[in-house]
Each structure stands twice: as C-alpha cells, then as structure tokens.
Hints:
single chain; alpha+beta; Alpha-Beta Plaits; 5-stranded antiparallel beta sheet; 3 helices; 14 strands; 20% helix
Amino acid sequence: MAWYVIYTKSNSEKKVSKYLESKGIVVYCPVQRISRQWSDRMKCIDVPLFKSYVFVNLADYTSCSRQILGTQGIVRFVWWQGKPGIVKDDEINAIIKFLQENKGSEVIVDYNINVGDLVHIKQGALTGQSGKVITIKGKNAVLQLTSLQCRLLASTPVKNIELK
C-alpha cells in the first residue's frame, strides 16, 4: 500500500477526510492546534498543516481513483513526473512524530515565496489578482499588481498567496 496525495478545495481538508473515512479509505490529514483571535474571544482550533492536501493509503490507485475523485471537496490527485504523487510510509511517520513532539508550538510550512516571484492571491480583499513580489516583511508580502494597467502596491499575508 502507498500514500497518495489528494488536492482538495480550499478549507475542505477535514471534511474530505471524514467523507473518505466513511467510505472505508485510510486517510491522513495532519493538523495542528493553534489559537485564533475572534473579535469577542480567543479559541483553539485544529488547522491542517498542509493547506488543500490530504494523504490516502491505497493498495491500487487505478481501482480506487474514481471512487475517491467522486467525493465532495476533492479536486484531483497530485501528479509528479507523469505519475500519481506517492509519499513513503517513513515520511508520513516522520510527520506524525514531528507533530507529536512539537505539540503546542505553531508549525509553519514554507511555500518558498521569494522576492521577484509571480504569485496569485488566493484569499483576502484582492482574491484572484496576480502580481510580482516586491518585498517580504515578516508574514506579509508587498506585491506589485499590474492588472489595472497602473502600478499598485498592495500588502497581503504570505499565507494568502501562491506561486503562479
């Protein structure tokens, strides 16, 4: 059996995991507990470690792929070099061990956004816009947006952008 990587709709990782488990499929969605501030309270919530990714353990990709792709919230399997992306058991076990040993501390997954990269804004006030990273200041990136035929600089959290 191998671990395959599934790409999900935004913020659907935990729902997809439940749907797949109800179909009898072994699923792993690594989550971390973090504190979030709402306007009226502070709350601890579980958020997926890898945004839009879930791992499924399958004996045979071809026999299960249709059943899995028909599940609500799933976009596609992740492919690498013309084949479905596979993660080794020891890598999954390393993620599990890492999360167990680092409970209580926030884990940040680096999406390798660098100055000069062309990016797409996936959430926030500028959703759908594309631009070039001018500078990165802490957790925010300053982007140059050219879609309006003028130079507009906007600051947005790095977590809201993805490489184009």
